[in-house]
Structures are given as structure tokens and as C-alpha cells.
Design goal:
The protein is an alpha+beta fold. It has three helices and three strands, in the order αββαβα. The chain has a three-stranded antiparallel sheet.
Length: 65
């Protein structure tokens, strides 16, 4: 059976943490930022962990499972 290729789009969007969780960037910060408060923009700039339900799908895209 051939090796499973990693999806390039997933490779660029997700990072694996030391504990095995998957980090992602938050959405809604690319444009129309002047309508958002400073607090909103600060919270959106931080990274987040993906939801548990999406984990198997993302791991498959990254070639981990």
C-alpha cells in the first residue's frame, strides 16, 4: 500500500502541540477589522485548539492516522 500524502492546505493551517492536540488560527481577522473592538481583535489573534469532533478528520488530513 502506498504512503498517505499530507494535504498541503492542512499542513499550512494546523500545528501539533507537544501533548498531541492540534492548534489552529481563529477566523474573522482578515478584513473589516476596524468594526471590531481592540479586545475582539486581541482575542482573535491568539491561537486555539480544534474541536474534539474535528480531530479525527484533521489528523487524517495531516497523515497522522
Amino acid at each position: 500500500m502506498p504512503k498517505m500524502k499530507t494535504k498541503s492546505s492542512a499542513k499550512k493551517r494546523f500545528k501539533l502541540t507537544g501533548s498531541g492536540k492540534i492548534k489552529r488560527r481563529k477566523a474573522y481577522l482578515r478584513h473589516l477589522a476596524n468594526a471590531k473592538t481592540k479586545k475582539q481583535k486581541k482575542n482573535l489573534s491568539k491561537s486555539d485548539v480544534i474541536f474534539k469532533g474535528d480531530e479525527p478528520r484533521v489528523k487524517r488530513m495531516l497523515g497522522l492516522k
